[in-house]
Amino acid sequence: MADDELGLHIKGAVGFIDATALAAGLTALLRLLGDPPAAGEDSAAPVWAVSLLRTGSLDVAVRPGGAVTRESVERLQLVRRGIGSLHERAGAPAGWNQEDLRNLLRIGDIVGLQGVEAVDIIIDRQRPDDWITLSGSVLNHARESLSETEVSFGSVRGRIDRYLSRGNRREVGLTDESSGRPVRVWYPESLQARMVAAIERDVVIWGEVRRNTAGHKTSIRAEDLELVERRPPEPARALVGMFDPDWTDGISNDEWLRLQRGG
Fold it and tell me: What's the superkingdom here (predicted)?
């Protein structure tokens, strides 16, 4: 399967898979890939053409169709990376929103319909070992990422290491200094220039912070930010003169150290 293709492997016996499973799974996949234009944009919604359809179990895949746009290809790659990210850990993938997570869960929901034993995301049709099964960790990570229940005003400190800008979706990502976990940052147009200038820099960002049920910060809607300059570590010679000459009560340094060691 080429890099411009994504599909579903619906596992089940020939003649027993409920057609509703195919319809529901493909609809959710198209919604996940669709990312319709923001309000006010003139561009049409992307077109996705069927590039694979075969039975045994049931395989279906799509790729950008019609006039292929850079946005469609980028969206496909973003979805592929996001599914891979959720296979490894919880946390909304870069460029994904809450509805994207729901659509991934909707694909997983077809398991249990008549004749459907499992569903995989086909990454490369020639390499089944690379397919990602939508069960267990992937869906659990998606549910955890979706469960942002606590909202409060606060701040996040860390390094901005991801950037996405498309239409009116403005987003960066940073690694939270206190937890080492990724945090998504949405920001208004008024902060665009400052956010771009802060890429690969350490910052403190203030705004509406969202946490998941485990208490981890997952996202922040930024109201302001400040660059943080890290001071270089002090060299050992900077410690010279920190202590008064009489701090050992007149005994030599070697004798003082022996006393500290109990001997």
Answer: Bacteria
CA 33 to chain centre: 16
Min mean pLDDT across 96-100, 148-152, 177-181, 233-237 is at 233-237
Long-range CB contacts (within 8 A, 24+) of 251-258: none
The enclosing H or E element of 153 equals strand 148-166
- Residue pair 51/5 in contact (Cβ under 8 Å)? The answer is yes
Dihedral angle sign, alpha carbons of residues 240, 243, 246, 249: negative
Amino acid (1-letter code) at residue 249 = D
Q: List, as one string, the DSSP characters of 42-57.
A: -SPPP-EEEEEEEETT
- pLDDT of residue 213 exceeding 90, the answer is no
Report how far residue 230's alpha carbon sits from residue 4's, in angstroms, rounded to the nearest whole number: 41
What is the CATH architecture of 148-227? Beta Barrel (2.40)
pTM, full prediction: 0.60
Q: What angle do CA 165, 168, 172 make, to 5 degrees?
A: 35
Q: Is the dihedral of CA 215, 75, 137, 50 positive or negative?
A: positive
57-70 pLDDT per residue, tens = 999 999 888 767 78
Among 66, 61, 73, smallest CA distance to 47 is for: 66
User: Tens digit of pLDDT for each residue in 169-186?
Assistant: 688 989 899 888 888 898
Q: Mean pLDDT, the chain, as a whole number? A: 83
DSSP state letter for 149? E
Q: Are 199 and 227 in contact (CB under 8 A)?
A: no
Q: Which stretches within 89-136 are classed as H helix?
A: 98-108
One-letter amino acid identity for 253? N
- The domain limits of the chain are 6-146, 148-227
φ, ψ of residue 157 in degrees (nearest 5): -115, 135
